[in-house]
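Bumping with the actual sequence this time:
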Amino acid sequence: MVPSPHSRGVTRATRHSQDGVVGHDKLVLSDVAPPPVWTMHMTAGGVIVDGMGPTSVPRLRVLSHRRHLGTRRRVGRPSGPLAEHWTTVGGVEVFYRESIPSPDAQVMMHLHGFGLSGRYLVPTAERLAGEFHTLVPDLPGFGRSGRSLHPLDVPDLAAAAVAFLDDRELKSATLVGNSMGCPVICEFARQNPDRIDRAILVSPAGGLHNQPLQRAISQLARDGVREPTALMSVAVPDYLRFGVPSTLRLFRALTQFPALERLLQLEVPTLVVVGDRDPLMPSPARIREIANQYDALAALVVIEGAAHAINFSHPGELANVIRLFMADEPIVDDENSPGRARAYEFHRGARLPHRDAQDRGPSVEKGLQEQHEGAGGAREQALQAEGPPPQPDAIPGDEADPGEEQDRRPESG
């Protein structure tokens, strides 16, 4: 036996015939049940893997259940308020980050977007970890967590989030989602309305505005050059790990999910946060139309200069907005953070205390119209000079916007 380059417990045995010619290699897994078996037969033309035919590059057919185990259980030293942990939920190993909870802290769980792990949510989550019992899981099939034995759609991911709370013995939580995490939150609330305290939807996506796939890819490409370059090192490994087959399957599932219907069914106090440079969002007219139907919405906040991955690009501003929303305070700008949050509060449900009219922010109609008109000047030039890179996550929004190909630009500050 010689050591294998593969994961723990796998060894490789090579059998030689009497004349010294290699007969075949067989990889076997020891100390794990049920063991996966890969078989490779050497030929003059290359390698034949059972059921796959000849190929010039050795490929292994995995006959195992190991894929639900995720990456190896390694955790880094806590470098901030969030520590890394592993648990097993429904037979799948789940990686997550968690703050040290205080007995009376409200629970807040952050849910990532399409193809990504929770890593890009950490900048915002860390800023809130001192005030809330904060959890950032990699849902099954994403990031460092293992895969379930069947592909998961939006209702399955919502059920997985509920199962994770069960595993942590938590009764309910405020849910903060970005992109695809928003429809997951809406489905979570439909399945278990008593398990969600409040909903915070950041760059909500998951509807017709991002369909078909070619449109979503185009929107993501435009968003990529508006995101911080540091996002590249987070997003690329996550997307590669998620894989093309998983991307196609989940995108197909998203096209079949009634995102807008679920959104309008939310009954918990809800905050929506969008960036004025996000090409994945519908037009202001469409946002206004949806907002007027949305009884549970407490406030809509626009962060100037932000694209789609607000949790990563504007964590200080987003954390400030979340903090004020959770305290039922007027939402105002954080002068110490880049960007400028503009709150358009047009509905305050019975679950939230009402304020006098003079305390309310500008009307949603006026604010969104100003945002859409844009402006020139020094701020425009500064935004145009921003450097590249890639997108945090791809996920579909609402109604198709005929004018979406026109680049939206923010107004001057």
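The tokens above came from a reply further down the thread. The longest strand covers residues 22-29.
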